[in-house]
Amino acid sequence: MLTKRIIPCLDIKDGRTVKGVNFVDLRDAGDPVVLGKQYADLGADELVFLDISATQEKRRTMHDMVLKVAEQVNIPFTVGGGISTIEDVDDLLHCGADKVSINSSAVRRPNLINELSDKFGNQCIVVAIDAKEIEGKWFVHLAGGTIPTKVKLFEWAVEVEQRGAGEILFTSMNHDGTKSGFANEALAKLSGLVNIPIIASGGAGTVQHFVDAFKTGKADAALAASVFHFGEIPILDLKKELKKNNIEVRL
Questions:
Q1: Distance CA 220, CA 100 (A)
Q2: In the predicted model, is pLDDT for residue 23 greater than 50?
Q3: Catalytic residues
Q4: Confidence grade of residue 60 (pLDDT, cut at 50, 70, 90)
Q5: The domain 5-244 is classified under which CATH number: 3.90.180.10, 3.40.50.2020, 1.10.340.30, 3.20.20.70?
Q6: Which residues have C-beta within 8 Å of that of residue 233, sequence separation ≥ 6?
Q7: Is pLDDT at 55 greater than 80 in this prediction?
Q8: For 90-143, how does the pLDDT look when each residue is reduced to its tens digit (9 = 90+)?
Q9: Contacts by 229-235 with C-beta closer than 8 Å and gap 24+?
Q10: What's the pLDDT score for residue 209?
């Protein structure tokens, strides 16, 4: 049985880790390189670094930070934000990233997924999907959740798998930062529709929320930010509780 993964997410703005609620009201959470090393030492399985303003500001993800993280961190890490070309991905992988996450650029030009998967292999291509439930239907949003689209979550998830994505990072904008639990119904539906791993994101507030994401939502990994950044849930304690609930994790 594959182990379930716990992934701290570090949203980066102006070189600092930030955290908000429903994608707004950001507050400072520390130095991303220092935090990343702490999480690796404390038992995280992977890390995700997202430059949340890169797409809006039309600039590339910070390569210097990736180089520093690669020097300090001994677990796999994913980098996202403003990635739109083969050259972007080539640069980041050469700087030491294990995977890249694409979001807005994939929706705007879906063939980018095929190109990146063909060039680098699907194991390092993560498609992030930020979606919001509106009147019972889930719609994809772009540019850090600031631009709504008519693209439907479940249809898009099936397409990204067909195009060669290796994983999907699904963030529920309705749940993001609320600490009210993950979008388990949507997660379970996604898990039933695709065969690639689904990373749950948005809504972690308690240990039970992680249990529910794995058991009810059928997620392969669970990602969280503020509960880790502000010391509310220690990663090792979380994993021990998951183990008690018969969820296979790496201790």
A1: 18
A2: no
A3: 11, 130
A4: low
A5: 3.20.20.70
A6: 204, 206, 207, 224, 227
A7: no
A8: 999 999 999 999 999 999 999 999 999 999 999 999 999 999 999 999 999 998
A9: 229/8, 229/10, 229/17, 229/19, 229/29, 229/30, 229/35, 230/19, 230/29, 232/205, 233/204, 233/206, 233/207, 234/42, 235/6, 235/8, 235/39, 235/42, 235/43, 235/44
A10: 98
The residue with greater pLDDT, 14 or 134, is 134
Residue found under tokens 């993800």: 61
Residue 38 CA neighbour count, 13 Å, CB half: 15
Instruction: Select from 128, 126, 148, 146 the least CA-distant residue to 137.
Output: 148
Report the run of H or E that residue 87 belongs to, with start and end.
helix 86-95
Q: Are 98 and 123 in contact (CB under 8 A)?
A: no
Distance CA 175, CA 182 (A): 7
Per residue in 153-200, pLDDT (tens digit) is 999 999 999 999 999 999 999 998 789 999 999 999 999 999 999 999
Q: What is the pLDDT of residue 176?
A: 86
Structure-block tokens of residue 134: 């509106």
Q: Kindly list the distances between the CA atom of residue 89 and the CA atoms of 3, 97, 192, 199, in Å, as whole numbers in the listed order.
A: 27, 9, 29, 21
pTM tops 0.90, yes or no: yes
Pairing of strands 221-224, 24-30: unpaired
Contacts of 126 (CB under 8 A, 6+ apart): 78, 80, 99, 100, 101, 102, 165, 166, 167, 168, 169, 199
The domain ranges of the chain are 5-244
* Strand pairing class (24-30; 167-172): unpaired
